[in-house]
């Protein structure tokens, strides 16, 4: 059974750095053609892709946010961590992690998702 | 970036209805189109991948079709558990982009 769960702060003050952790089970990030991505959904808005990390450490970022995002993985802990610097109220959203199937440079699909973690950016 | 649009944005429907949702891409994406179902407070669920492939465990009343830049998701007979928001997503190139969603509401 594959599961993913997001964790992190629910409230962040503007200009702070957000650190989110995705803890997963049922698969390994050492398996080829597998990876974990982050997607967010601002209140009342559509899903927005943020970042991907592949089994081979290849990393991709949303171009408009690339300077603020860092994604890493710890295969021994089955975790993927996303950091986003200089948080702003417009970054208020529910943040999801999801497993994807795909090869370097793109994905095929996100087949398993976490339930999401809400993050509010406010002073 | 490839822009995705969906129509309708919302639909008031009844149990047993046949529902079709359309997704259009701003350029050809071949068949790299996926569909997800999302209910409030729940994890999004993959329904269809690469246009027409039913994800394991998804009921056969869901089907997908299309090619090029226009795609459809069809629910042949709506069930109570199908009231949710549906998103399409292109996976031909980064950045990955999603459609704005189609919300199915109970009439």
In this structure, how is the largest beta sheet of chain B organized? 7 strands, mixed
Give the terminus-to-terminus CA distance of chain A. 40 Å
Coarse shape of chain B: globular
**In oligomeric terms, what are we looking at?**
heterodimer
Compile the SSE list and pairings.
The complex is a heterodimer of chains A (123) and B (107).
Chain A: E1 3-7, E2 11-12, E3 18-25, E4 34-41, E5 48-54, E6 59-61, E7 69-74, E8 79-84, E9 93-101, E10 109-113, E11 117-121
Parallel strand pairs in A: 2-11
Antiparallel strand pairs in A: 1-3, 3-8, 4-5, 4-9, 5-6, 7-8, 9-10, 9-11
Chain B: E1 4-7, E2 10-13, E3 19-25, E4 33-38, E5 45-49, E6 53-54, E7 62-67, E8 70-75, E9 85-90, E10 97-98, E11 102-106
Parallel strand pairs in B: 2-11
Antiparallel strand pairs in B: 1-3, 3-8, 4-5, 4-9, 5-6, 7-8, 9-10, 9-11
Keywords summarizing the entry:
heterodimer, A: 123 residues, mainly beta, seven-stranded mixed sheet, four-stranded antiparallel sheet, B: 107 residues, 11 strands, 0% helix, 50% strand, globular
Q: What does this molecule look like?
A:
In chain A, strands 2, 4, 5, 6, 9, 10 and 11 form a seven-stranded mixed β-sheet that branches. Chain A has no helices and eleven strands. Chain A is globular, with a radius of gyration of 14 Å. Chain A is mostly beta strands and 123 residues long. By secondary structure, chain B is mainly beta. Chain B is 0% helix and 50% strand. Chain B has strands at residues 4-7, 10-13, 19-25, 33-38, 45-49, 53-54, 62-67, 70-75, 85-90, 97-98, 102-106. In chain B, a hairpin with a 2-residue loop joins β7 (62-67) and β8 (70-75).
């Amino acid at each position: 059974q594959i599961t993913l769960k997001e964790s992190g702060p629910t409230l962040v003050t503007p200009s702070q750095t957000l650190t989110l952790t995705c803890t997963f089970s049922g698969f390994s990030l050492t398996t080829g053609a597998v990876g974990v991505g982050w997607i967010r959904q601002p209140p009342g808005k559509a899903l927005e892709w943020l970042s991907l990390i592949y089994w081979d450490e290849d990393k991709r970022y949303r171009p408009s946010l690339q300077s603020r995002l860092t994604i890493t993985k710890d295969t021994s802990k089955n975790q993927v961590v996303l950091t986003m610097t200089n948080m702003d109220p417009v970054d208020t959203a529910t943040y999801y992690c999801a497993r994807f199937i795909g090869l370097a440079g793109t994905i095929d699909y996100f087949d398993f998702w976490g339930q999401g973690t809400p993050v509010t950016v406010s002073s | 970036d490839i822009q995705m649009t969906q129509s309708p944005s919302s639909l008031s429907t009844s149990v047993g209805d046949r529902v079709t949702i359309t997704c259009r891409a701003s350029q050809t994406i071949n068949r790299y189109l996926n569909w997800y179902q999302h209910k409030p407070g729940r994890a999004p669920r993959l329904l269809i991948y690469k246009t027409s492939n039913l994800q394991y465990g998804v009921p056969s009343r869901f089907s997908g079709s299309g090619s090029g830049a226009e795609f459809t998701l069809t629910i042949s007979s709506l069930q109570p558990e199908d009231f949710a928001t549906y998103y399409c997503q292109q996976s031909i190139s980064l950045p990955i982009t999603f459609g704005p969603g189609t919300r199915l509401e109970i009439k």
